[in-house]
Design goal:
six-stranded antiparallel sheet; eight-stranded mixed sheet; binds calcium ion; 1 helix
Length: 343
């Protein structure tokens, strides 16, 4: 046999080995499988909260004095929209006939003021400006000084009527840091009704938050200041100008037992740029969280809490680069919307 024929038959044998094995193999039995059909509970599959007062927002103007820091005593959303932001799905509260989202018990926020004993104005007159809805003139007022000349000349407020925090006005003497519990002073809290006829036990929720987060400093060049005993702890001095965390828990959870679910801030997406007398960006950012509600039917409370903030509102030690009263675009948050999608 020539060498070329040897190669030919070797290749043929190799190919046929596979063919013969397949041909002679017993046919596999066909197992009929039936996929479980899981139906969601009735009701809208999505809802949107807009952190703004007025008829095109989810909130009415809060009463003076802020909110008592306890579950169910926050300032409640009274208009919940479809994801398009215009179609109203629910108004009033969950006891109203017009509340068309049975799986949503309530959405509430913490507002500063004399009634909010964890964010009161008892020490610093301006502390009711810590967490509130922006006034109609906040966005146009030139309150911040970013160009080192000692004169405030940069607008640093939030758009009119939007919910925002201005850390300059919070001050640790009057506003305590939250830990995810019911007595947090500054928070956004969503309470789900886990009755399975309203939200089936296999259902989860994806939350999409639109917000801006600004700091007077960019992220530190060395993140070692952010760790404590190997744990990422952005509340550490020098790590982040402010910190916000996301919690998913039972509404009755003991505060000391609550652990964060996700980090929201840091990072901040904009910081003060003294060389150019501006903030690096005023863009709105988006973050999404998948809430694994199906893993535990006792999970009914989704909370975004302010967990810490700086006490220094000057840039790199320069006393002429400063934040001011009502300056969420110096160190602070502006909240735009929260959309909830059942999955
Ligand atoms: Ca200036």
């Amino acid at each position: 046999m020539t060498q070329s024929k040897t190669i030919f038959f070797t290749v043929l044998a190799t190919l046929c080995t596979g063919c013969l094995e397949n041909a002679s193999a017993p046919k596999k039995s066909t197992v009929q499988t039936t996929a479980d059909t899981l139906s969601p509970a009735s009701g809208p599959m999505a809802a949107k909260i807009i952190f703004k007062t007025g008829t095109n927002g989810s909130f009415d103007v809060p009463i003076n004095g802020g909110t008592v820091p306890e579950l169910g005593s926050g300032h409640k959303a009274v208009r919940i929209f479809a994801p398009n932001g215009t179609t109203t799905l629910a108004t009033g509260d969950s006891s109203s006939a017009s509340w068309g989202i049975p799986w949503l018990s309530f959405v509430e926020i913490g507002v500063s003021g004399s009634s909010n004993h964890n964010s009161s104005n008892s020490v610093k007159a301006l502390s009711s400006d810590c967490a509130k809805f922006a006034s109609t003139t906040e966005s146009s007022a030139s309150l911040c000084d970013y160009n080192k000349d000692g004169t405030a000349d940069v607008p640093c407020g939030a758009p009119a009527d939007y919910f925002r925090t201005s850390e300059f006005d919070c001050t640790p003497a009057t506003t305590s840091a939250g830990a995810g519990g019911n007595d947090d002073p500054i928070y956004i809290r969503v309470k789900f009704d886990r009755t399975t006829s309203k939200l089936a036990s296999h259902e989860n929720v994806m939350a999409v938050l639109e917000y801006s987060a600004s700091g007077i400093h960019p992220a530190p060049t060395s993140p070692t200041t952010c760790f404590s005993a190997g744990v990422f702890t952005p509340e550490q001095p020098g790590c982040s100008d402010m910190s916000w965390k996301v919690f998913l828990r039972n509404s009755d959870a003991v505060a000391s037992a609550i652990k964060p679910f996700l980090m929201l801030v840091p990072p901040v997406f904009a910081y003060v740029d003294p060389a150019n007398n501006r903030i690096t960006s005023t863009a709105i950012s988006t973050k999404q969280f998948l809430l694994p509600l199906s893993t535990d039917v006792s999970l009914d409370t989704f909370q975004i809490s302010r967990t810490g903030a700086t006490t220094t509102f000057i840039h790199n030690g320069n006393p002429n680069v400063i934040c001011s009263n009502n300056s969420p675009l110096c160190v602070g948050m502006i909240f735009y919307s929260l959309s909830l999608y059942r999955l």
